Amino acid sequence: MARNKPIPRSQRLIFNRGEKISRNSPGAKDDVKNVSVGIMDMDSSILYYFNEVIKPEVTENKEKVKVPCIYASPERWVAISKQGYLRDKKQQIITPLIVFKRTSMERNDNIPVDKLDANKPNLFYGFNKKYSQQSRYDKFSVQKGLIPNKEYYNVTMPDYVTLTYEFTIWTSYIEQMNAIVEKINYSDGAYWGEPGKMRFRTRIESFTDASEITDQERLIKTTFTVNLYGYILPETYDSKTTTQKYLTPKKVIVRENVDIEIADTGESKILNNANVVGEKEVFSISVSNPLTFQAGTGVTLSNDGIAFDGSTELTQEISIGQDVATTADTQFATQTLTNSLQIGTSSTKYTSTGISGSIGITGSLETSGDMTILGSATILGKLTANELHTTFTSASIIFASGSTKFGDTIDDTHEFTGSVDATGSFSLNEYSVNEISNDTTLGDSSATALVTENAVKSYVDSEVGDVQSYLRKQFVKISSSITGSATASFSAITASAPTGYTATSENDFIFFINGQYMEHDAITIQQAGSLFLLKVDTSGIGYSLESDDEILSIGKFNS
Description:
This protein is an alpha+beta fold and 559 residues long.
């Protein structure tokens, strides 16, 4: 079916009025600064950290002397490189001194960021400002259900870079150099920067001793390199700010109020959130010496120690901790009896020396000492023991042939603690197993061998590795040229399907022309050396290819 071909992206007119309006327009009252980080910010963080955090200092003539740290200008750095030191206006060598200079900057590929289009970034990090002068949080808003709008700010993702700084330290004595190097080395891996501003992680490379001693001068010198992992975000780019503001719409929630009537029971009335006792006729007699109840041992009073003079009603509840009725289960910690304990009409008596008569126990019996049974012991349930010493060899059934049988039904469970050493085959439900194999190739194809975890993992990894690699391949390519009216060329190579899988075809790719999907029934693909060719059936798709068309392909390319 023929259709109109979309206009190439390069010929489209893109205009966004929101990008042409400044956040600092009159009446905006926007006090949020545009987020920006530059190279100067990273240089300043290095200088601030040395002067305000590390604070290198040496001892001269029993006094603490602060070691200055300066950023070397190009002219000063050239002089240092030629002479090996820095002199003042009187041509005297300046010591102690720390000089540094930024020597290189490169992209940090350890933190990949794909902005899709560097001239128009489409990845943002958003943060919101909950309350402001225009979005207040007050009692009126809470009572009326007015949800204030929020201010959102989208900040473009920065470019992550690694900056390299070369440092040189000069002192007059080795002790001074050691003190400075120790302080600097202790700061390795920290985040350097000024509080309230951007801070950057650093890494200090090895220190190199470059001391120089001549007949005229003695100079202790150390060099080292600092790698700063920073990020760059310009304040404006392409006439647009990298920080954009958005406002959410305000919401007003309306709820219904329900009136509830409270019935008057006659005993109390509820008026103005206060309980007023209904009118009653009360007659009472008060005494000058009130009666006071005190709780004793094992007795609890609900109003312990409260005096009762008869003027007001007082209810006392007396409790003894547990129920002592004839039908209750009573429990005591310790009971001491003079002679013996006899329960009911039973002839069994419990004395300090033992139990006379018969006793029946329902439940478990636990003893911490030895138990001696002079008569016979009949156990109707299961006997469990850590050690069992008997007059017979085993509790199993040993047949005349030498075979041993454990249990009598198929649902019996037999547990072994420790190792089991077996010679011969192993039979499970009449199926025999004669070995445990560690063959990682599974080449024997044995029907009587169990394989180990290592053998299974190695075999699966070797079989699945190529398949996973092929299935995960999904790359995007853009046509490099248009030949004629029906062929587009890509600088790419298709991925080969693993053994046993269907060969790679046009069904493994998706094509777009100027942003519009291209039907598969009108296209074919061909690999010609290092070129991937897309051939279009112009009569079937309804249009011809042109030199300024942009064709994008997504599919199984090698890279």
